[in-house]
Amino acid sequence: MSNYRESYPLAGETILITRAYQSGNSFRQMLEAKGATVLEMPALEIKPPSSWQPLDKAINHIADFHWLILTSANGVEYFLERLHHLGKDINYLKNLKIAVVGKKTAHFLEKYNISPDFIPPDFIADSLVTHFPESIEGKKILFPRVETGGREILVQELTQQGGEVVEIPAYQSTCPDTIDNTVWDALVKEVISIITFASSKTVRNFHYLVTQALQTTPQLTLSSLLTEVAIASIGPQTSMTCQELLGKVDIEAQEYTLEGLVDSLVKKQYTS
């Protein structure tokens, strides 16, 4: 039995993941490899931006920029897909330095045979500014990002240090219309033991969807729905949003990656 527990430390746990479908599969596989039963409730839908014109213009004038900053796999994918759509390949970026936030973003970039010039030591955007490898003053920086709802701290800090940051919508991250019926039923019947959140936006969208669903079940409240559920967060910013909207956070990843979140879930099982 002890060997089984060592091999499958999350056996017996039903874990709800809230990432978008496009990015949820690897996380699901990691959890299932540890023995968990996994349900998916994408609290994000990833779509192209409302207009490609700003990104196309920036790509066509890429020589004007010193740095390209990418903070997500979605940013990498949509930027490079658009680059290829415009008939250009990665050689077009050879005079541009590239900074990324997080191992996952770096690995995704390497799938396109591009190695980033800078990865900050901590997997959060704030660390990128603190450890930037050269003076930002006078540098023109291209930042393809989510169209709405992203954190502004990175742009503010780069600007304060004298950089000129050009923010371009590369994709949209929207909230689904309704909660999945299977997931809602599992929540109401207390089947789910852990809910994971990999961004503040997934917390906000989850809160919105659950609040909407609760209007049809007046005997339940958000607090009663989550009483027996552990809330697991990928990092401090997401934890703050969990605390604010859900009233608690039980597990926080030590390393702010999906792998780190899985590790923290496993460690929690051994100490509980």
TrEMBL record:
Pfam families for this protein:
HEM4
Keyword presence, Ligase: no
Database matches in InterPro entries: 4pyrrol_syn_uPrphyn_synt_sf (IPR036108), 4pyrrol_synth_uPrphyn_synth (IPR003754), UROS/Hem4 (IPR039793)
Keywords of the record? Lyase, Porphyrin biosynthesis
User: What top-tier enzyme class does this entry carry?
Assistant: lyase
Q: In which pathway does it act?
A: Porphyrin-containing compound metabolism; protoporphyrin-IX biosynthesis; coproporphyrinogen-III from 5-aminolevulinate: step 3/4
Q: Which residues form the signal peptide?
A: none
Q: Does the keyword Glycoprotein apply?
A: no
**GO-annotated molecular function:** uroporphyrinogen-III synthase activity
What's the EC number here? 4.2.1.75
Superkingdom of this entry's organism?
Bacteria
Q: Which family does it belong to?
A: Belongs to the uroporphyrinogen-III synthase family.
What is the annotated role of this protein in its UniProt record? Answer: Catalyzes cyclization of the linear tetrapyrrole, hydroxymethylbilane, to the macrocyclic uroporphyrinogen III.
The entry's protein name is: Uroporphyrinogen-III synthase
- Could you tell me which species this protein originates from? Cyanobacterium aponinum 0216
